[in-house]
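> forwarded from #structure-qc
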């Protein structure tokens, strides 16, 4: 299979490696803090009246319309949970002014549909900032994480999936004053990188890089960056001329720092979610519908594809049964990590075999 950049990334103008020039934002955000810094820039330059973002309230991700820098700081960081957009989006449509919206690919897709029906909205929704997204964690998967850490839901005052450098740390502040902190990968890899606790809708979603956003953002999982960077770096994919203009201005005014990179580096950094969504999806669909779904792979490639897809589906199904979730909860993280490493190695081998 020949690697076609646009097939994996979507239509784009430029790709960048970047980070916030504000040290606090870069440190406390998920990757490079660029989403928050671009919103800060737009707010301070009075280009918009606010932005639709997500803030954690205890264990609940809540949509808010951030109208000042404090709101933006409080909503920094990724919430790997499902958030419903409809009510707050309706509120935003009712209020006067210009707004930016941050969202996952399924959110941005919905907003583009609404904008297509209502042309006047293009003047009011001035920028769509899209996060890369491989999946969210199911509510059961979130519970298992808390139980593994011996935390009960009602004890939690504050919860953060990431922050404090890069790749960052999970942070929990309990009502009794106890604090829990552990490295992002130490829980993410064993519990979620195997597609345990992935909702069905995410198993059948094909948009990884937020292809309908003006700018898409993800982690810069490039070996050369990961070796030296402990503060945080993001990958940005700019897709519209408006996005290019805003990025240029934000950099000029000292909010962000950007370096151009090639599409193939974006693919290198994001090979695993691309493999999951762009290569494995047709195979998962074929298995679900029991029909050959326009898959043009030779027999060896198809064999490895089928093995990977079957493992992904089996892991998702197993973890969503109460017995499966209980078993995962009881297994030591080290054993789960061993399994996750085996699966990642098999997927990497298959990715290289299929994409050449
Ligand atoms: C569910 C999910 C899955 C992701 N999957 C991947 C992936 O597979 N690969 C990858 O490289 N990156 C992924 N990301 C993106 C990555 O985690 C960072 O969000 C991205 O790199 C931007 O980092 P930043 O430091 O610039 O953002 P920050 O400056 O920290 O700002 C993040 C912004 O995103 C908003 N936000 C957070 N969670 C949500 C949410 N659930 N829905 C809508 N808005 C939200 C916040 O309100 C904030 O405005 C995912 C993010 C999420 C939320
Ligand atoms: S994987 Fe797709 S459906 Fe699932 S949260 Fe991400 S964008 Fe939405």
């Amino acid at each position: 299979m020949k690697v076609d950049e646009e097939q994996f990334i979507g239509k784009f103008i430029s790709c960048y490696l970047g980070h916030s020039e504000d040290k606090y934002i870069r440190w406390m955000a998920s990757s490079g803090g660029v989403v928050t810094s671009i919103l800060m820039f737009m707010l301070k330059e009075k280009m918009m009246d606010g932005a639709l973002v997500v803030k954690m309230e205890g264990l609940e991700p809540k949509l808010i319309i951030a109208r000042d820098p404090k709101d933006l700081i409080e909503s920094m960081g990724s919430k790997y949970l499902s958030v419903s957009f409809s009510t707050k989006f309706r509120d935003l449509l009712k209020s006067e002014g210009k707004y930016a919206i941050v969202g996952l690919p399924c959110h941005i897709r919905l907003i583009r549909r609404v904008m297509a029906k209502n042309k006047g909205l293009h003047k009011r929704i001035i920028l769509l900032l899209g996060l890369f997204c491989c999946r969210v964690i199911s509510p059961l998967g979130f519970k298992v994480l808390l139980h593994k850490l011996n935390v009960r839901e009602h004890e939690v005052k504050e919860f953060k999936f990431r922050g404090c450098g890069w790749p960052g740390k999970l942070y929990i502040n309990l009502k009794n004053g106890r604090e829990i902190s552990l490295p992002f990968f130490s829980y993410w890899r064993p519990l979620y990188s195997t597609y345990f606790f992935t909702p069905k809708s995410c198993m059948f979603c094909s948009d990884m890089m937020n292809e309908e956003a003006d700018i898409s953002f993800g982690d810069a999982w490039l070996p050369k960056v990961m070796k030296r960077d402990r503060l945080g770096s993001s990958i940005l994919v700019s897709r519209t001329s408006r996005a290019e203009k805003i990025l240029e201005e934000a950099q000029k005014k000292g909010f962000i720092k950007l370096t151009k990179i090639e599409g193939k580096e974006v693919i290198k950094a994001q090979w695993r979610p691309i493999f999951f969504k762009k290569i494995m999806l047709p195979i998962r669909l074929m298995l679900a519908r029991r029909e050959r779904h326009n898959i043009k792979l030779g027999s060896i490639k198809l064999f490895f594809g089928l093995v990977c897809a079957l493992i992904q589906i089996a892991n998702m199904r197993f973890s969503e049964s109460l017995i499966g979730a209980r078993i995962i909860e009881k297994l030591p993280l080290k054993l789960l990590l061993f399994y996750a490493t085996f699966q990642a190695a098999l997927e990497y081998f298959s990715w290289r075999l299929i994409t050449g």
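QC bot note: The two ends are 7 Å apart (CA to CA). The longest helix spans residues 333-355.
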